[in-house]
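Appendix B, Record 12. Input sequence as logged:
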Amino acid sequence: MHTPDRLKEGLTINGETISLADQKLELLNHELKRGQKELRLYDDGKHNDAEPNDGIYAAAFDKTKIAGSYNFRVVASGIRTDVGEITSREWTKCINNAVNIDHSFSRIKVDKYKTRLGIKYYITIVPMDSFKNYLGPGSEVKGKIPNIKQKDITSDDRNVDGTYKAEVFLTYKEIEYGQKIIIYINNKYFTTIKL
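Logged structural output:
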């Protein structure tokens, strides 16, 4: 299987469709060599480790394309104690890499239905990052139509992909003033949708 820099829906290789989940696993396996990677720690003053030979060791890990948890385990062995015995020390740390959502990779759909009094808009947003990682349910998503109204866009927590939906009704008079809805996710600007 090829290793993509960016995941793509509908990817086919030799006539076989490769799911997004399989693409993510392949990317993770390629980047982390089956989910694990050994790093060498340095004490040379060139790897964010302060001064050479000062007993402070460091290394950089930048293979975090896949959102989720990264577990680090550092083992120092062969350490001589004050009484001359050899011992080892172990340290573990878990770091969570959040999904860095981007509107240009997200699914955004607006359906509209004309009525006698105005237009009803059905807005669906699935926030994702460039690797097709979903933001997931539980975030605060709000839409603001300038000079008219604010509307919460809610997620059904049963949708594990984090689909957020809203219905917005605008009278024909309101449409004259507000022809766009500005979307905020967790109080940060996400995108503007033309109605």
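The chain has three domains: 1-34, 36-97, 103-194.
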